[in-house]
Amino acid sequence: MSMEQDHFRAMNTEIDVALMEGRPEDEVQSLHEIRNWFVFVEGRFSRFLPESELSRLNASRGFPVRVSSVMLEVLSHAVEYKRLTKGIYEPCILRALEYAGYDRSFETIENYGGFGLPQSAMLEAPSYRSLERSWTTYPIFNLARLSRGTSLDLGGLVKGWSVDRIVSWLMVGGIEAGQVNAGGDLKVWGWGQNDRPAWEVDIPAPWTSRGQKKPDILATAQLKQGAAATSGTTKRRWKTPSGVMHHLIDPRTGFPADSDVMQCTVLGASVADAEIVAKTICILGSKEGEAWAKEAFPGYDALLVTADKSVRFVHGKGSNVCWKEAR
Q: Which Gene3D superfamilies does the annotation name (predicted)?
């Protein structure tokens, strides 16, 4: 079986691709198109690029702005996820992230020794009331308008959505099997059939250090077709005079979430769904988060790691994911 692979960096994360069972020339062309897609998405949705479409929308000061069809599509998903999570998924948290010190790319923060401090001394502390601001879209005119004072961060949703989108395109294009992994948000298809084994997804422990050559593995999931996403509070962390901060903002407080969940990995049909479910569980905590997930996304599996380093499996209704716990 031939396999074409690629590795590159985009959207501030590492992206790995493996394609099988198409014609070799088609696979190579597809690898180029995948790179182009992620570069395109970054140019549209990065809050760190001043010329991006999202930055332009965030700077609109309450006035309508002409936006692309993909921006309208993502904003539509954001509305639905906000509804499904009862407001725990809240894209209007950019000012809260900036106040916590995440006003530059995480790469830049790491280059400064992991010390995050807002570059603007004019930033005000976030409040729940400020996070309730939202947006309106006018699809027939390709317009969007943020309420005055609203700034969006669509990063996690966009990463999952972009993987879902490119995999759909690859499948329609005749690539029979493959995997696309954007920083741990991944989708696989076409495995477990035609003599192809299921794709194995290792779940690393949240306490694995960056310099550690071989990460501690909590469990391995065997996927024939589906998606996985991981969220947590231990990777994107930085130091401030007020203490250690992380990037998962609880919209109920406007500050980094303080729950018993260190990390959550979710498996299901959609990467975007899995990303939102994992993040919501991390914010809500193990008890409330598990109860919510079973109601809102009953077919999705989850692996939770709590602050006392205990590991809990949540099996989705009708799930066919095979888990192998590390020994």
A: ApbE-like domains
CA distances from 235 to 29, 110, 123, 205 (A): 34, 11, 25, 11
Token couple for 61: 């000061």
CATH of 198-327, one of 3.40.1190.20, 3.10.520.10, 3.40.50.720, 3.40.50.300: 3.10.520.10
Torsion angle of C-alpha atoms 14, 18, 22, 26, degrees rounded to 10? 30
* Known binding residues for Mg(2+): 156
The residues spanned by each domain of the chain are 198-327
Detail the residues annotated as belonging to a binding site. 156
- Give the C-alpha separation, 55 to 45, whole Å: 8
Q: For 79-131, write each residue's pLDDT tens digit.
A: 999 999 999 999 998 888 777 766 666 566 554 544 555 544 444 555 554 44
CA distance 184 to 84: 23
- Token pair recorded at residue 67: 């936006």
Confirm if 204 and 215 have CB atoms less than 8 A apart: yes
3-state secondary structure 172-221: HCCCCEEEEEECCEEEEECCCCCCCCCEEEEEECCCCCCCCCCCCEEEEE
- Which pTM was predicted? 0.89
